[in-house]
Structure prediction request, 244 residues.
Amino acid sequence: MKTLLKLMLLVKEVKFMDKQKVKMTIINLAIIGSLILAFTSGIRIT
Amino acid sequence: MVYDGIIIALIVGFLRKGNLQGIADLRLKAGYIFPFLLLLQIIIYIFQGRFEFLATISGTIFMVIYILGIYFLWQNRHHPGFLLIIAGVLMNFVVMALNGGRMPVSEAAAMVIDPHYIDVLKNGIYAKHVLLTENTVLPLLADIIPLSSPYPRSRVISIGDIFMSIGAFYFIQYLMVTLKHENTSKTNVTSKGGEVHG
Prediction:
C-alpha cells in the first residue's frame, strides 16, 4: 500500500514536468546512482 | 545499501512534499565521468577472470579510477552532502590502496550472503574484493558490516559505504526539499515586490 502511494506520488510529479525536465531528471539520477555504485564497496553490487 | 539509499531518499523526499525540480536542474561538474568510471569497473569485473594480465593490474586500475573519482567529487564539493560522500570514498580508497587495490571482505560477515561468494573469494578474484585475512591492513575500514533480515537485501558493507549513503541521502533531500523551499521563497519575494511597485 505504501509502495503504491509512493509510486502515485512519483507519477503525479512526473506528469507535471515537461519532457526535457524528465530527461534531465533521469540523466542526473543515473549520474548520482553511477557515482555511488562506482565507489561503494558492498560485495553484492555487481 | 548505497543504491537502496537513493531510492529511500527519493521516497522520503516525496513524503516530505519535495519535488524533482532540483534534480532536473542539477548540473554536476564533469558529471558524465561517473557513469564512465562505473562502466570501466564493470568491464574489468567481466574480463579480469579471462585475462591474467588484466587480473594482475586490476588493483592498480581500481586505484586510478578512485583517484579520478575523488578528484571529480572534489570539484563538486560545494553541493550539500558531497563532503560526506568524499569522506566515504576516501575511506574505501585508503583501505583498498593498503591492500593491493582491492576491498577486503570479512568471511564472518560474508556468511550472511550466499556462501558462493566466499568460495569465489577464496579461490580467485571477484569484482574488486579480496578475502580479509590476518595480514589485512586497516580491517576496520573493510567490508565488515553484514546487512541481513529485516533489511531486504543481504550484503556486506564498509564504514565508508555508510558515509556515502548518508551523504547521498542528504544531497537528494537538499535537491528535493530544501531547494524547493528556497525557490518558493524567492518566487514569493519577487511577486510581493511586483505588487508593491505595481
Remarks:
- The radius of gyration of chain B is 21 Å.
- Strands of chain B lie at 103-105, 129-131, 145-147, 155-157.
- The mean pLDDT of chain B is 87.
